[in-house]
Amino acid sequence: MTKVWHVWPVLVLLILTGPLAQAQNRNDAVAERAETLIEAERYSEARDLLIEPARNNNALAQALLARLYERGWGVPQDFTQAARLNRAAASTGNPMALNALARAHAEGLGVEQDRERAMLLFAQAAQSGEPRYQSDFAVALETGLGSEGDPAQAVTWYERAAEQGYVPAVTSLGVLYLEGSGVDRDPAMAMALFEQAAAEGDPRAQNNLGLIFVRGEDVERDYDRAFVLFQSAADQGLQAGLNNLSVMYENGFGVAVDEARSRELLAEGRRVGGLSLQSRLQEIGIPFDQRIVPDDWTRAPQPSERIAANNGDPVSLYRMAWRELHGYGVRQDIPSGIAKLEILAGQGLSSARLLLGLIHANGLGVPQDFAESYVWLSLAAHAGSPIAPGIRDELAMQLPPAVVAQSQARVQSYLAERNGEVSP
Q1: Among residues 189, 195, 191, 225, which one has the least CA distance to residue 210?
Q2: Residue 20 pLDDT grade (very low, low, confident, very high; cuts 50, 70, 90)
Q3: 131 and 138 in contact (C-beta within 8 Å)?
Q4: What secondary structure does DSSP assign to 240-283, as a single string?
Q5: Distance CA 242, CA 45 (A)
Q6: Among 4-18, 242-256, 305-319, the range of highest mean pLDDT
Q7: Nearest 5 degrees, angle CA 206-CA 208-CA 210?
Q8: 301 secondary structure, DSSP code
Q9: What is the pTM (predicted TM-score) of this model?
Q10: Top-confidence residue, 420 or 229
């Protein structure tokens, strides 16, 4: 009788879990396919694949869908939704979700800012053995997330990631050896680590190694080698590499003096490093949709153009809005131009939504309102504007987290009211 009681529960368990295991395997396969689509920047396709397995509590699907919401890829950016999905996946120990949730708590986006909680989550993600998350935990330890850091512990975790070949950790470890932070200063070790990472193409390591050769403090000065290293870092868009290469051209270190090239590189470095939000807004201006080829804006519009605009023709409506915003061939009337853009925005025209976002960000004829701008730029990004996501994300860093959450809720409501345009 004892054997019967031991055998039957096992058999029942196998019968019950067989279909469940098969379903879980299918969900895993779908999530992995979606991850490939995300890497290929096919975000909408990935989103559609992830919805069902995420609803079925597949942790990988939840974490990947959270990433889409966090970045605003294929869906309106929604930090609260990202945090909800990451929290569900993190409860199963998914390291991707744990790490993302740690970042959210560190920054207070979608959740309450809680740096102690963030540090615990970074640690849990690092325990998975994934070198990216070990390196992120090391960064958190090194910086202290705004409080006193622990560089000695950071060294330990950078080493674990570096031993697995994670190149950014190799570079970061080199910095600590060069500075003697958390470990005895060892320029030779730093050089070896930088050389290793530079050979793998890491731009930070290339730049750091270039600086060592320029300064000639721990090695013989070598401007030629430094120039090559700075050039490699600059080619990958590293701001420090661009700035340092500019100095080389300005002074003729390792290359002939070329002040024009020096200025070009310095300007490029400023752009890469991120102009101030206000400077970037000024640089972008209020661009018109290049697909809507303009006539001579200075002349008055043809009667047919006015009639078409009044009848709701989108091209004519856009052109009349543009004229009214600037007073091109008509009396300047910014409120009327904005009203026309709002009609087009409601029809899903990304360039109209982009203009509205820029108008509110710049305070063109309206009070400057970053929250309102965030809403329109989010909608523009959702409609496919390539310019909108970068400015939207900069605005998110300028606004209080609570205001960002309110703005994201407005985006969802706006889309939900328009023929189900809202993403899942």
Answers
A1: 225
A2: low
A3: no
A4: HHHHHHHHHHHHTSSS---HHHHHHHHHHHHHHT---HHHHHHH
A5: 37
A6: 242-256
A7: 70
A8: P
A9: 0.80
A10: 229
The better pLDDT of the pair 44, 25 is held by: 44
Tell whether the model's pLDDT for residue 6 goes beyond 60: no
Q: CB pairs under 8 A, 24+ apart, for 380-385?
A: 380/350, 380/351, 380/353, 380/354, 380/356, 381/72, 381/76, 381/77, 382/72, 382/75, 382/76, 382/411, 382/415, 382/421, 382/423, 383/348, 383/349, 383/350, 383/353, 384/350, 385/350, 385/351, 385/353, 385/354
**Burial category of 326 from C-beta neighbours within 10 Å (exposed 0-12, middle 13-18, buried 19 and up):** middle
What tens digit of pLDDT does each residue of 212-222 get?
A: 999 988 889 99
Count the helices and strands in the chain (H runs, E runs). 22, 0
The gap between the terminal CA atoms of the chain, to the nearest Å, is: 53
Q: Tokens 């290359």 correspond to what residue? A: 255
Provide the pLDDT confidence category of residue 278 given band limits of 50, 70 and 90.
Answer: confident
For 377, residues 6+ apart whose C-beta sits below 8 A from its C-beta are 353, 354, 357, 358, 361, 385, 388, 389, 391, 392, 395
- 10 Å CB burial of residue 293 (0-12, 13-18, 19+) is exposed
Please identify which residue in the block is written with the tokens 């560089």: 151
DSSP 8-state assignment for residue 224: H
Token digits of residue 190: 């730093």
**In degrees, to the nearest 5, what angle opens at C-alpha 414 toward C-alphas 411 and 420?**
110
87-118 residue pLDDT tens: 999 999 999 999 999 999 998 989 999 999 99
Q: What is the pLDDT of residues 315-347, one digit of tens each?
A: 888 989 988 888 888 889 999 999 999 999 999
Structure tokens at 380: 């523009």
Separation between Cα atoms, residue 282 and residue 275, nearest integer Å: 10
208 close to 215: Cβ distance less than 8 angstroms: no
- Encoded tokens for 10: 């096992």
The DSSP secondary structure of 47-94, one letter per residue, reads HHHHHHHHHTT-HHHHHHHHHHHHHTSSS---HHHHHHHHHHHHTTT-
- Answer yes or no: are the C-beta atoms of 148 and 117 closer than 8 Å: no
209: amino acid identity, one letter: L
Per the CB < 8 A criterion, the answer to whether 177 and 162 are in contact is no
